[in-house]
């Protein structure tokens, strides 16, 4: 099966003491999670998807969420905490009406294996009580899109 990778760049960082972990992941942490997720899918897709769905092995960390959808039909096979598995990613839209799921799906159709950013879009943050803007980046070239989403400070456009 083919896998498309997506990472979300985190643009909003809260000041924290050096001894404490920041409440939001950094762009570097999002990219590291993406690389780890892609390696896990390449090693054993079924095991990786189970880990993503359970948030095991570091695939959920603060606001960083790993999720996957099939390129062929857009069905979420490993989903972020706010969206049930089985949902067609193309139907996702934010409260402003922005159809960010269509953008995610379209970005995953490429074959150049270059990271393409999608967003920002408004989506619930697992570490904040209200919705926060999120951003994703996709690496096309496989049949399943592996994504890491994170919080950003930029408003959806």
The biggest beta sheet is recorded as: 7 strands, mixed
* Pattern of helices and strands: EHHEEEHEEE
Report the helical percentage: 10-25%
Spatial gap, N to C terminus:
34 Å
What is this structure, in a nutshell?
This protein is of the alpha+beta class and 157 residues long. The chain is built from three helices and seven strands, in the order E-H-H-E-E-E-H-E-E-E.
What does this molecule look like?
With 157 residues, this protein is of the alpha+beta class. It has one domain (3-12, 23-141): Beta-Lactamase (2-Layer Sandwich), CATH 3.30.450. It contains 3 helices and 7 strands, in the order E-H-H-E-E-E-H-E-E-E. It has helices spanning 27-43, 45-54, 100-108, and strands spanning 3-7, 60-61, 64-70, 76-78, 116-124, 131-139, 144-152. A hairpin with a 6-residue loop joins strand 5 (116-124) and strand 6. Helix 1 crosses helix 2.
List keywords for this structure.
157 residues, alpha+beta, Beta-Lactamase, seven-stranded mixed beta sheet, 3 helices, 23% helix, 28% strand, disordered N terminus
List the helices and strands and how they pair.
Blueprint: E1 3-7, H1 27-43, H2 45-54, E2 60-61, E3 64-70, E4 76-78, H3 100-108, E5 116-124, E6 131-139, E7 144-152
Parallel strand pairs: 1-7
Antiparallel strand pairs: 1-6, 2-3, 3-4, 3-7, 5-6, 6-7
Helix pairs in contact: 1-2
């Amino acid at each position: 099966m083919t896998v498309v990778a997506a990472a979300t760049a985190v643009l909003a960082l809260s000041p924290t003491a050096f001894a404490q972990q920041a409440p939001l992941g950094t762009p570097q942490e999002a990219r590291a999670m993406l690389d780890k997720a892609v390696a896990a899918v390449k090693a054993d897709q079924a095991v990786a998807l189970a880990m993503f769905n359970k948030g095991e092995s570091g695939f959920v960390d603060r606001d960083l969420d790993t999720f996957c959808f099939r390129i062929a039909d857009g069905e979420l096979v490993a989903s972020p905490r706010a969206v049930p598995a089985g949902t067609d990613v193309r139907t996702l839209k934010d409260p402003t009406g922005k159809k960010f799921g269509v953008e995610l799906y379209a970005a995953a159709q490429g074959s150049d294996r270059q990271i393409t950013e999608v967003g920002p879009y408004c989506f619930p943050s697992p570490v904040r009580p209200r919705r926060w803007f999120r951003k994703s980046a996709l690496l096309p070239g496989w049949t399943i899109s592996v994504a890491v989403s994170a919080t950003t400070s930029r408003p959806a456009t």
